[in-house]
Amino acid sequence: MEMNQPIGRTPLDDRPDGLVGRPLDRVDGPLKVTGRAPYAYEVRELADPAYGFIVPATVSAGTIRAIDADAARRAPGVILVMTHENVPEQGEKKEQVWPQLAGTQVRFRGQPVAFVVAETFEQARAAAMLVAVTYDRSKPKGLLRENLAAAYEPKPVNSPPDSALGDFDAAFAAAPVRIDAEYTTPVQIHAQMEPHATIAAWDGDRVTLHTANQMLNRGQKSLAAVLKLPPENVRLVSRYIGGGFGSKLQPLPEATLAALAARVVRRPVKVALTRQQEFSVGTHRTDTIQRIRLGADRDGRLQAIAHESWSDTAEGDGFFETSANVTRSLYAAANRVTRHRLVNLNVPLASAMRAPGEAVGQLAFECAMDELAERLKLDPIELRVRNEPAEDPEKKVPFSVRQLVPCMREGARLFGWDGRAAPGTRREGDWLVGMGMSAAARLNPLMASSAKVRLGPDGVLTVRMAMTDIGTGTYTILTQIAAEMLGLPPNRVRVELGDTDLPYASGSGGSFGAGSAGSALYVACDNLRKALIRAGDLNPDGAVFRDGAVTSGNRTESLANLAGRTGMEEAGEIKPGEMKAKFSQYSYGAHFAEVGVDAETGEIRLRRMLGVFTGGRILNAKTARSQAIGGMTFGVGAALMEEAVTDPRHSYYVNHDLAEYHVPVHADVPAIDAVFLPELDDKANPLKSKGLGELGICGAGAALANAVYNATGIRIRDYPLTLDKVL
Ligand code: MOS
Q: Which of 343, 440, 569, 601 is deepest in the core (most CB within 10 A)?
């Protein structure tokens, strides 16, 4: 059944002043701020755990010649030292989940080569230092730029790596105004607050992992493949998660190692990555090299667009950064090329990080648009307006709803865009001041999800699904949807998430969580409404659910009564349907940034920033704004500071902690605000909502880069924009 077909009025439309959309405080807020929300490492359900510690490879390429673990095995409290010599048999790599300690080859620095289990964390860590590994080293391949000759066309992920329309070469050659520029973005680290952590425990042939994971049902399948178990024998529990940003889309080595070791030692094993290990055992966003060519006529109408992107990942992996995908839909032009190429290096595993593809793609592309506007002496907003496509320029289907132009216009008005001066002409004391803008667009996917709702005889509604809340507010918006649909106060709704024993759900990622899980819940609640109306033999036309009762005509029945002595349970499911192919679905926005650049030192300070966004129905004004300004803050980091620096001799990130890998702090993010324009997208899902989690980062950094150009007249094409590049 096509569940996201266009729909007419819904119960949510009938109550525009209802609970959905309101800035409800997080329902899990009190648990979190009082330290009572158990994150994976803190779960106390499993008695008497032993502690694991990972020994990562200290070379980036080569083979293990020998491991001497005698001293570690004799160390106080040590229960097990696991290496490739004694690791239990494992299955094949699935998705990005690899068998661990599976052989002597070292592909990257940080690859686990041993795992120590001891009575205490300190004993495990101390013994890990005693594991002596000798390697036969080979010369690592560490830099993308030096290995472009090895670039290949990767396997498609959701769409082919390349696209072409018309005759780019001819149109570009003939265009009177041309931009041909290369941009680079560095390795970025997710830097989520909660490190990866797992407690694994076996019960017969079934293993339970309390683990920090964004997509439990997917993780369950991958781990089952590696552990050679049927998926139902692998249970993932992840009730509270301290940030993910993509780093927890898949189980990391600590989960596999904990599960393998717990079976051997016949005890629960708990393990967390250290912050330093997050940079190597964990994953990262790849660096990219992006070449962008734009050919326009003298009025600024694009004739030719080419966006080519090179990225890299670990040996043996196929993950590539889809930087140019968003370019396929953003602006009109008859002749277009996009291309992605991948290089395998001796670097840790690259993975998705907040808005994979779009985030770095728009860092580059939205700068190129600014360069073109400057060349044409055209306002950057006007340039974008002139290239607004009537339909998706590559898929040749209509947009579901596209309010990019209203976002830019409203942002310009609110930000005071007309006060923008010519490049390098506005000075306040030591500071050169400039403004920049960027468009934002992020794909809106829908993922299969299901939910169960149960109305108890006490009138309390329980929601159950294997969804996750990675800090984004999922518990809260699901509470709002269920409460609104059944006409219950939010404190009569209990939401249970984070357990693969619950009905399967999308999990959190790719900006699909709220729309997918929320829609499954919506369908389940709608089924329950219908069942209640049937139970009361009520007329469904004009039935209103409010204050714990349903009213139809002159009859009002309490839901608790209708649910009966045993209560009432219904299920709901949502699957991507034909709307996905029939319409081009994105969330849109526009960023505006004002920066000051110190004329003497080149120091760049953000002064103020505004994002104007559309994402269909807003489910919670407060959590939506938090997602938006959080994404924008990521953009500030990408523009000004975030960079994992590779030492090419050792193929290793030298700044591997949060003291040296800089993310924005409060002082770096002054006046910042986000505004949402009214929108309902009835092609997206029954909620008419679209994803917001990643929209805020898309284009945000480019607005700062364009502001730096406006302040100084200096165009920097290599992110981050540090002061040495200004001088
Ligand atoms: Mo996201 S990078 O899919 O968590």
A: 440
> What is the interface pTM, i.e. ipTM, of the complex?
0.98
Specify the DSSP element, H or E, that contains 106.
Answer: strand 105-106
The Cβ of residue 312 has, within 10 Å, a number of other Cβ atoms equal to 30
Cα–Cα distance between 69 and 83 in angstroms, integer? Answer: 9
Residue at 113 is within a domain: no
CA of 115 to the centre of ligand 1 (A): 28
- Together in a domain, 718 and 591: yes
Number of helices (H), then strands (E), in the chain: 19, 29
Pick the closest to residue 198 from 246, 247, 253 (CA basis): 253
Among 218, 349, 354, residue to substitute to test ligand 1 (most atoms within 8 Å of Cβ)? 354
459 and 396 co-located in one domain: no
Q: Do the beta carbons of residue 444 and residue 691 sit within 8 Å? A: yes
- How close is the Cα of 404 to the center of ligand 1, in Å? 23
| Distance from the alpha carbon of residue 423 to the mean position of ligand 1, in angstroms | 36
Atom of ligand 1 nearest to the CA of 351: 2
Single pTM value for the model: 0.97
Same domain, 504 and 608: no
Of the three residues 516, 544, 575, the one that is the final residue of a domain is: 575
Residue that is written with structure tokens 């349970």 in the block:
569
Taking the CA of residue 246 as reference, the ligand 1 atom at the shortest distance is 4
> CA-CA distance, 87 to 227, in Å (whole number)?
12
pLDDT tens track for 616-655: 999 999 999 999 999 999 999 999 999 999 999 999 999 9
Judge whether 526 lies within some domain: yes
Domain shared by 717 and 592, yes or no: yes
pLDDT of 177-199, one tens digit each?
A: 999 999 999 999 999 999 999 99
Task: Please list the residues that pair with 78 across neighbouring strands.
Answer: 118
Kindly give the distance from the C-alpha atom of residue 283 to the centroid of ligand 1, in angstroms, as a whole number.
12
End-to-end CA distance of the chain: 60
By most ligand atoms within 8 Å of CB, the mutation choice from 249, 360, 467, 698 for ligand 1 is 249
* Whole-number Å distance between alpha carbons of 564 and 483: 19
Q: What is the CATH number of the domain that holds 471?
A: 3.30.365.10
Residue nearest to atom 4 of ligand 1 (CA): 246
Q: Which atom of ligand 1 is nearest to the CA of 244?
A: 4
**Model pLDDT for residues 445-463, shown as the tens digit of each residue:** 999 999 999 999 999 999 9
Number of domains in the chain: 2
Tell me: do 463 and 541 sit in the same domain: yes
Q: How far is CA 546 from CA 8, 119, 457, 567, 618, in A?
A: 21, 55, 17, 19, 21
CB 52 within 8 A of CB 261: yes
Task: Give residue ranges with CB within 6 A of ligand 1.
Answer: 214, 244-246, 249, 352-354, 356, 509-510
Angle formed by the axes of helices 358-376 and 621-640, nearest 10°: 70
Question: Distance from the CA of 237 to the center of ligand 1, in angstroms?
Answer: 19
Q: How far is the CA of 513 from the centre of ligand 1 (A)?
A: 10
Nearby residues of 19 by Cβ (< 8 Å), 6 or more positions away: 480, 483, 484, 490
pLDDT at 45: 85
Helix (H) or strand (E) holding 442: strand 431-443
Tell me, yes or no, whether 220 lies in a domain. Answer: no
> Letter for the amino acid at 117?
V
pLDDT at 1: 43
- Taking all residues of the chain, what is their mean pLDDT, rounded to a whole number? 97
Best mutation site among 358, 694, 697 for ligand 1 pocket (most ligand atoms within 8 Å of CB): 694
- Are 478 and 452 members of one domain? yes
Is residue 653 within 8 A of residue 280, CB to CB? The reply is yes
pLDDT at 3 (0 to 100): 61
**Which residues lie across from 571 on neighbouring strands?**
452
Asked if the structure places residue 659 within a domain, the reply is: yes
Give the H/E segment covering residue 210. strand 206-211
Active site residues: 694
